[in-house]
């Protein structure tokens, strides 16, 4: 499954320091080839995805099991594991009560579904039409 970018996600763009000159704690950074701060999605790397109730997530420390976020409080997500997941969670992975676990929000990954093939084809056709 692929991670999509959504409003609220923190992202980064790679740039290069343009000179050694520092003025009032600031230094010039060049982000090629952009003049304004508009960039292609391919140039972004996910820094920290926004996690919301209802999102599908995985937790690397718990074997990448997939679950749905039921609640978020005090830096932790209460997650209902998918029916196919092994339901054992070690103590260091959070609290477990069978099919529900508590995972630290800073350590989980959001799982976004792949777009349907028909949607991908429709977008490609629309982009081709817009180019002509």
Give the arrangement of secondary structure elements.
Elements (H helix, E strand, L loop, with lengths): L9 E4 L2 E8 L2 E5 L13 E5 L7 E3 L7 E8 L2 E6 L18 E5 L4 E3 L5 H15 L1
Antiparallel strand pairs: 1-4, 2-3, 5-6, 5-9, 6-7, 7-8
Task: Provide a brief overview of the structure.
11% of the residues lie in helices and 36% in strands. It is mainly beta and 132 residues long.
Can you describe what's shown?
This protein is mainly beta. The chain has one helix and nine strands; from the N terminus they run βββββββββα. The strands form three sheets. It has a five-stranded antiparallel sheet, with no helix packed on it. The chain has a two-stranded antiparallel sheet with strand order 1-4. Strands 2-3 form a two-stranded antiparallel sheet. A hairpin with a 2-residue loop joins β2 and β3 (26-30). The radius of gyration is 20 Å and the shape is flat.
What keywords describe this structure?
132 residues, mainly beta, 9 strands, two-stranded antiparallel ribbon, 5-stranded antiparallel β-sheet, 1 helix
Written as H for each helix and E for each strand, in order along the chain, the element string is EEEEEEEEEH
Distance between the termini: 32 Å
- What is the β-strand count? 9
Structural class by helix and strand composition: mainly beta
Q: Main sheet?
A: 5 strands, antiparallel
Large-scale geometry: flat
Radius of gyration: 20 Å
Could you name the ranges where pLDDT drops below 50 across 5 or more consecutive residues? none
Number of helices: 1
Q: How large is the share of residues in beta strands?
A: 35-45%
Lateral strand order in the biggest sheet:
8-7-6-5-9
Q: State the share of residues found in helices, binned by percent.
A: 10-25%
Q: Quick check: average pLDDT?
A: 75
């Amino acid at each position: 499954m692929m991670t999509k970018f959504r409003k609220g996600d923190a992202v980064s763009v790679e740039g290069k320091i343009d000179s050694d000159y520092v003025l009032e704690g600031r230094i010039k950074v060049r982000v090629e080839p952009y003049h304004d701060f508009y960039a292609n999605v391919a140039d972004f790397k996910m820094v920290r995805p926004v996690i919301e109730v209802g999102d599908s997530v995985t937790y690397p420390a718990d074997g990448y099991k997939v679950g749905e976020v039921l609640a978020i409080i005090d830096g932790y997500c209460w997650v209902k594991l998918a029916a196919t997941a092994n339901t054992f969670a070690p103590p260091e992975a959070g609290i477990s009560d069978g099919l529900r676990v508590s995972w630290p929000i800073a350590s989980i990954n959001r799982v976004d579904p792949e777009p349907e093939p028909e949607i991908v084809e429709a977008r490609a056709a629309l982009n081709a039409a817009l180019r002509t």
